[in-house]
């Protein structure tokens, strides 16, 4: 995250979250007006990037997104997203999942459109490589290793320089290896960084800005989510190149 | 801005800051900072306008209460038949979760036959189980193994049935069984040697 500070050609009407005190230099007025206009225009459409076309409820079902854990490990905040329990095995309501997933993908695409830095986070070893590859393929960043405490909250001292923090964090797993929530969820909330996260039946969705209730343990479901987020980001970047003329 | 707040001294002040930062949505706090002038307009976060246009369905606050939703149990009318089947015959074969077009299981076929007979109405209730089992036997699936055809030395087909009873039970009816030739190692060697000489 320390590298890639200014090479992304920051051209936006608003500046990203920073840990340094000094703001960025003022942008040229003429170019920024057209860009600002274009960005404001994109917000008028309910689905500017047509993310609803990326998946169907049947796709979610085939990827086993509806399979939750057992009733014993259910987090009370997740009970509203549960369709029912089949002999104590919890099943997600895929209609609700589909709605929330569309929201999350739309937000992700808009952030990518505005040139935001997106960080993929996931702490389960089986899917580490998959998540890192997804980030590489869409030109964004991933952090699937041990999370040192001050990465977001103490970044200037941790990395030893001015840091541009991510503008969106996507959690493929909200839990750590053990029964605790990932530290980045709380830290992102502290640092005013919006989050998107796949929440399973044992997770707490409260601090996540755009939670997506679904299975986060099957390779098939994580692979589907990775592909969907990648597609949304690439669509956002494509439009950015096309409409704003920036890489 | 945010970093400065964190560095400010006083444990109580920091705890209060953590409580505020987690119990209020990021948009609420960002709006507050912008209005009060702590955050200058050019420092407005990248996501601010997007969040304003597309707010999440549920506001992200850590103390958002969990709604009182009772989780319903999923049961179907066929579960009664399934329960009877599994109690009597146990679990036959396995199912692959990754199959996109899975073949019907023995239990599914049994339930189909049972319901078919039930709808006909010709068979009394207590004999439905037996009749359904007999209907499956007609398709080649023997739930009661003692009723399976007896092995005779002449028929190769019956030998296969004996050696692979599980396959026998999970076959799809009306599909021809492809019979594999029994090869011996000596034959395979002869064939390969024949190829080499050519």
UniProtKB/TrEMBL annotation, chain A:
Role according to the record: Required for mitoribosome formation and stability, and mitochondrial translation.
One Gene Ontology term of the molecular function aspect: structural constituent of ribosome
PANTHER family tied to this protein: 30S RIBOSOMAL PROTEIN S2 PROKARYOTIC AND ORGANELLAR (PTHR12534), SMALL RIBOSOMAL SUBUNIT PROTEIN US2M (PTHR12534:SF0)
Subcellular location: Mitochondrion
GO BP term, example: translation
Family: Belongs to the universal ribosomal protein uS2 family.
Primary location: mitochondrion
UniProt keyword annotations, A-Z: Mitochondrion, Ribonucleoprotein, Ribosomal protein
Provenance organism: Cherax quadricarinatus
Protein's UniProt name: Small ribosomal subunit protein uS2m
Pfam annotation, one family: Ribosomal_S2
GO cellular component: mitochondrial inner membrane; mitochondrial small ribosomal subunit
